[in-house]
Amino acid sequence: MTALDLQIATEACRQCPIRHRAVCATCEPDELTRLEAMKSYRTWMAGQTIVMEGEPMPFAASVVTGCATLTRSMEDGRMQMVGLLLPSDFIGRPGRANAPYEVVAATDVTLCMFDRPAFERLLTDTPHVSQRLLEMSLDEIDAAREWMLLLGRKTAREKVATLLAIVLRRAATGSAPLRAELPLTREAMASYLGLTIETVSRQMTALKKDGVIRMSGLRGLLCDDLGALLAEAGDDADGDVLS
Amino acid sequence: MTALDLQIATEACRQCPIRHRAVCATCEPDELTRLEAMKSYRTWMAGQTIVMEGEPMPFAASVVTGCATLTRSMEDGRMQMVGLLLPSDFIGRPGRANAPYEVVAATDVTLCMFDRPAFERLLTDTPHVSQRLLEMSLDEIDAAREWMLLLGRKTAREKVATLLAIVLRRAATGSAPLRAELPLTREAMASYLGLTIETVSRQMTALKKDGVIRMSGLRGLLCDDLGALLAEAGDDADGDVLS
DNA sequence: CACCGGGGTTGACCTGCATCAAGGCGCGTT
DNA sequence: AACGCGCCTTGATGCAGGTCAACCCCGGTG
């Protein structure tokens, strides 16, 4: 996350704590003051668990900076990431006290947290908030469905290319070469894609060898030709993935 | 769908057109009359396309009887089912005119359809409706995440067992042997599970051979021991899949 | 009756990814 | 410097599931 992004996030935070992003047109003054009253900030370091699977989740929150992951696991230890939270994404569902999945900080992460009971009261009181939350949920459903296509039908190479494209898109600075900091370890990438670490690694080197991407260090990702990357991703060049 | 189910569905329909299911506690008289005014019914036959991928979708709807599927496809023809709609499920997102995926009738299917502009007006007017829709969306997100775990990490045998368990659960009559009519062809099952037809077929015969399930005809599914089936599914015996 | 066509099953073979194992690189610690 | 530890890469090998092809079953139709 660049200094500019941080500034934008905090700027927006004054405007609309739920989205932590550009002003919400429908924000109303009384909602904002009530939200202000119940919010608090907290930071986790990369790798720390924010909520354990099945544990009570006494808050709802939105991501201010950094990156967190939602993960479901099976008894024998197999794991699948089921949510990737970047700045402005929202965690926690009203009306459910327990988290059905583990929430982990992928990078250092700062959340803007809302006391759950107070937040639920706000929801029932003010239609605007629940409508905005509805919209965000619908976006999330679309993202999840795109993700299912990836998990169910794409090859390893397409999967990796798709993920890299998603990251580049979210971090887009505008002018080529596109440049982004990978917020995920190889392990997290594998978990996202339904692959193993080794396969992810092999596909990354293959994409490098074929000139589709370049790396500067382990985390620095550059791409001269997003079109080529999207072609590798098997998407029809739109890929409205991940809300 | 049995005659009893049908009766329940129509019964509930008078009560709450959105869910087409047990009475919604929060239904209010004026909402109901407005919903009544904008709704209409239509039936499709098994195999018919209800909405094409990318086409305009001039309505929102809820499933009254039968079964429909949402499918995303790639340019080269690979397809992945991303939604399975059973009675009481809802299709169509307010605020988006075009369907991002294909909707197909898996069995003969009857929808209760709402004119989209009118429905959107109702949404902004009455908070209850959007709150109920929010709840349903959140359930759908949870189901999608469970589904991702299946697509990303489960073996073919586990996938098939999981799907059969889901169907049995939704059709549950209570007493063993559990009995259900499979609403899906092998092709649709394969599409749901991210497998090929052949693999689904092989796993089905394997599960039969191992005494986990029995079939009466191609569509009739019986199970004497749901616990055994769930064990094969790799779930920790809860599996709150598919809302 | 023969014919056809659509859905399902089964077998033989192949391949893409997982698995297992070794080694490299960067970094903090003694 | 030497060591250990995370994280990543690379190679060798195996297997689950895809692919291709044949065949079955069943209901509809001329």
From TrEMBL, chains A, B:
Residues 23-140 form the Cyclic nucleotide-binding domain. Keywords: DNA-binding, Transcription, Transcription regulation. SMART domains: cNMP, HTH_CRP. It comes from the Bacteria. GO terms for cellular component: cytosol. Gene3D superfamilies: Jelly Rolls, Winged helix-like DNA-binding domain superfamily/Winged helix DNA-binding domain. Residues 154-227 form the HTH crp-type domain. Pfam families: cNMP_binding (PF00027), HTH_Crp_2 (PF13545). GO terms for molecular function: DNA binding; DNA-binding transcription factor activity. The keyword Oxidoreductase does not apply. NCBIfam families: TransRegFnrLRhodb. This is CRP/FNR family transcriptional regulator, anaerobic regulatory protein. It comes from Jannaschia pohangensis.
